[in-house]
Amino acid sequence: GICLERSLELVVGLLAILKAGGAYVPIDPHYPQERLTYLLADTQVKILLTSQSLTSLLPANLAKIICLDSDWDLIAKENPDNFESGVTVENLAYVIYTSGSTGQPKGAMNCHRGVVNRLLWMQDTYPLTQGDRILQKTPFSFDVSVWEFFWPLLTGARLVVAKPEGHKDSVYLIKLIQDQQITTLHFVPSMLRVLLQEADLEKCQSLKRVICSGEALPNNLSQRFFERFNCELHNLYGPTEAAIDVTYWPCSTNWKREVVPIGRPVANTQIYLLNADLQPVPIGIVGELHIGGVQLARGYFNRPELTAEKFIANPFYPSLQKEQGSTISPRLYKTGDLARYLPDGNIEFLGRLDHQVKIRGFRIELGEIETILGQHPDVCQSVVLAHQTETGSQTLIAYVVSQSQTRQHLSPEQEPHFFDEQIGQWQTLYNQTYRQSVEDSNPLFNTVGWNSSYTGEPIPAAEMDEWLKDKTATILAHRPQRVLEIGCGTGLILFQVAPHCDRYWGTDISVVGLDLIRHHLGESKLDLAEQVNLLQRPADNFDGLEAEAFDTIILNSVVQYFPHIDYLVKVLEKAIAAIAPGGRIFLGDVRNLKLLAAFHASVELTKADPDLSVDQWQKRVQRQIAQEQELLIDPAFFTALQQRFPQITQVDIQLPRSQYENELTQFRYNVVLQINTKAEFEQSATWLAQEAFTIPELSHLLEETQPPVVGITGLTNPKLVAPLTILEFFKHPQDVQTVETLQSSLQKLVLPNPETELDQLAETFGYSLLLTYAESQALNHYDAIFVKEQRRKPHRAKLTNLSKTHQDWQQYANHPLQPQLNRQLIPQLRSYLETRLPEYMIPNAFVLLAEIPLTPNGKLDRRALPSPEQIRLELTDTFVAPCTPIEEMLALIWAEILGLEQIGIHDNFFELGGDSIRGIQVIAKARTMGFEFSLPELLQHQTIQELAHLV
Fold it and tell me: What local confidence, expressed as pLDDT, does residue 301 receive?
């Protein structure tokens, strides 16, 4: 084995191993510990050439360690005489490991015969002389390095060795080409693309030829090369299992097809394009590429089953062997690559048959990454795909279903931490918000913090006043005397309800809000100081509150800030215990889970410029849905609660009563839970369908017949017509390019609202009016229910007919903690993989999904997986916009290179999908703006804020 940085000692070490008759196993010192351990254990190398500085990085092994930078005194004592090793063409020259689908890499064993054939062909095809200079810059764990090392040494040309990691720095490479007068070098297409973006290529006049391999070469990149360079470009193809390269093609400016061909076979090599029956395919028909000839590897080290699977008997050997002799091999290697013959006999590469890809020249089994990801304790499922960017380069995307997505509840270990953290965040936010209260505002009507999601501006006072009257009317209708308000804020509800009560307890997590209430209690003329008690505590803390102490508990516009549905159940359980028989729990402003998508689609459409594309609008909506951090609840949850808490004897789901259309009246509802009520009897309702009644008819019915309960079902909800129209367009956008068409069409959606007329009828004939979601559960309909007021014992019929079938609570709510869990999981996954896989196998982006999409027959539906552009990658922090000119310019560069709409100053370059190639592109782009920093510096300063400070 040999484990060294790129150096003179590395070249000496390789030559020494071969001279001694050994086969070398390249062990890249930059590999993570787990991979180093596997390579040393799998190969059981007897000798390991390394350097003193690297010994501390190596895992425990049984090899004899020889340090080429410190053991020369011992080496000098060895016999200096030249000797014959006895090596034949069938002996191994090297074993190079490539990615394996089972989660472990596999070592391809290549013999001297194949390597020598490949090098001699290269010299015949591209003759080197003593005046040529070859640049060795490819990592020696990648087989292109073989010809970089040995071709110049076989022919008398000069070998120039790049510094360690120098292959990642295009500026350094240009200077090296100029200084050392390099004539031949190699690039994978992705790195060639980066090089072509540099401004100083005219300094590379010494170049005669550039060899490309490792990835498919797009023709537009080839043409760009000829615009910048006046030298040859050659496209080569071959797997590690067949001694580096097996086909070649000279590029030219005349080629017009989208992809550059891989050409024809090299010397003593046969290429077969075969169908599933191992029969040759006609010209133009796609087949799997099989390789025969002298360059075939012996097989995979310690993997006889895989060797037998991939290296198969050559069905054409008996007939061809007689004609062509020893160059015809009895075996073929099944590459898994798809290709076809062009009319002129050249071969065109078309991709992979399986899930193997090449990234920056490295062959990667996606299954290996999936296997390693699947071993992480927080990963339930994973799929890794190669995604082609607009520039033609390949990036790895990992799609992950986390355990937290599939578990219905947080684990006992997670719950306290995440609940406390989420509540703490809201506490900080509202302390800051309440400090903004202006001194001249009405202390009894302090609406600070009540801002519109559509505009960011405060909701108009008239709309908030009507909202408040609706809430207090519902609460006061039950004549409360002993009240507990959980989350009393700045006292909006308290100052309206407390004057009518004997005792009023208010709790809140914000000490600032409570101090404001105390201040106003002391100054107001309501004389409430004696009957109001205030406590600073979270919602689930009922310490010191006696059982059955209250007749009313209020949670108004509070539930959405709870961290999880389980937390709400916990609060309600304690609240029920604190309610006296016949009491009630009022939950106001509950956000409706069924309207989550409609809400965000509506908000984002309102915010959008008319020329915004529909596609971009949809992405914004999807992003907002995925990052929703408030708790939204299906109304059916509250009726299902009766299965858990039989003390709940009645559930009323109520729509807000308002003439205004805003997010408070469109997307929220109120709930009244009656606790241990003694209903003397239950009234059956007289139901009228919307289409079967008119206002005059209803008036006549209420006046003449006076039924105890009258319900009108299926009324169109005018407040939701526009949002649901937007939602339908979001799901099925039709053939529209921008949002302007939808925005203009919504202006025509004006429907009459019968709410005012229904209110007047109820008041005239002595009824109370309840508006609730339609029994049909259609989102665009509601039911109106008239209940005759009783003089002595008011009672309510069981009017809510939503399903009471209990499901797991999580089915009734979203998961506000999920974005937080995701933000923590993504860097954890990246770090986890970095300890187990080489850098080039780390996905550029991680996309967390609720589930992996499947086709109707249960297979992975790759087309349904979102691209990175469809989902804004989760960030480690909330978005903070760039502030300084340097931050703004750097953010623009990142956005362009990473293909994202916006970049915040705390966003991490590598967590957004960046890698070393994109890092080089950022550096090159930044240099044009006058910013100088290196790739190692970008690795150390991974956020805009850190990088701007460095610059």
Answer: 96
CA pair distance 294, 387, nearest whole angstrom: 35
**pLDDT of res. 408:** 47
**In this structure, what is the dihedral angle of CA atoms 730, 735, 737, 739, given to the nearest 10 degrees?**
-40
Q: Are 675 and 691 in contact (CB under 8 A)?
A: no
Two tokens, residue 720: 């939701």
Locate 501 and state its tokens.
């009560």
| Fold (topology level) of 411-591 | Rossmann fold (3.40.50)
d(CA 489, CA 461): 17
Closest CA to 951 of 881, 910, 891: 891
Report phi then psi at 240, rounded to 5. Answer: -60, -30
Q: Which phi and psi angles does 531 have, rounded to 5°?
A: -95, -5
pLDDT in tens, 519-564: 888 777 778 888 999 999 999 999 999 999 999 999 999 999 998 8
Q: Could you give the CA distance from residue 434 to residue 448 in angstroms, rounded to a whole number?
A: 7
Q: For the chain, give every residue range classified as CATH 3.40.50.12780.
A: 88-354
Where does CATH 3.30.300.30 sit in the chain?
A: 365-407+817-950
Q: Which residues of the chain have pLDDT under 50?
A: 408-409, 680-681, 791-803, 870-877
CATH 3.40.50.150 domain extents, the chain: 411-591
Chain region(s) in the chain for CATH 3.40.50.980 = 1-87
Q: For residue 241, give the nearest of 197, 286, 291 by alpha carbon.
A: 291
DSSP state of 684: P
Q: Would you list the DSSP string of 216-269?
A: --BHHHHHHHHHH-SSEEEEEE--GGGSS-SEEEE--TT--SSB---BEE-TTE
What would the 3-class secondary structure string for 104-134 be?
CCEEEEEEHHHHHHHHHHHHHHCCCCCCCEE
Residue type at position 836: R
Cβ burial of 814 (10 Å; 0-12, 13-18, 19+) is buried
Which fold would CATH assign to domain 365-407+817-950? GMP Synthetase; Chain A, domain 3 (3.30.300)
**3-class SS letters over 570-597:** HHHHHHHHHEEEEEEEEEEEEEEHHHHH
CA angle (697 as vertex; 691, 698 as ends), nearest 5 = 85
Q: What pLDDT, in 10s, does the model give residues 17-73?
A: 999 999 999 999 988 888 899 999 999 999 999 999 998 888 888 889 999 988 888
Taking Cα atoms as reference points, which of 774, 771, 773 lies closest to residue 787? 771
CB of 144 within 8 A of CB of 363? no
Strand 269-274 versus strand 287-293 pairing type: antiparallel
Task: Find the farthest-apart pair of alpha carbons in the chain and give their distance in angstroms, rounded.
Answer: 123
The CATH number given to 88-354 is: 3.40.50.12780
Which neighbouring-strand residues pair with 848?
400
- Residue 235 has what pLDDT? 97
The CB density around residue 659, as the number of other CB atoms within 10 Å, is: 12
CA 317 – CA 309 distance, rounded (Å)? 18
Task: Output the CA angle 655-660-665, nearest 5 degrees.
Answer: 30
Identify any residues that bridge with 111 across adjacent strands, giving them in sequence order.
92
- β strands within 255-378, DSSP E: 264-265, 269-274, 287-293, 299-300, 311-313, 331-341, 347-352, 356-359, 362-365
Cβ 588 vs Cβ 556: under 8 Å:
yes
CATH class of 1-87: alpha beta
Strand order in the sheet with 482-486: 532-536, 503-508, 482-486, 550-556, 579-591, 668-675, 648-654
For residue 778 the two structure tokens come to 């259609």
What pLDDT does 737 receive? Answer: 83
pLDDT confidence of residue 213: 93
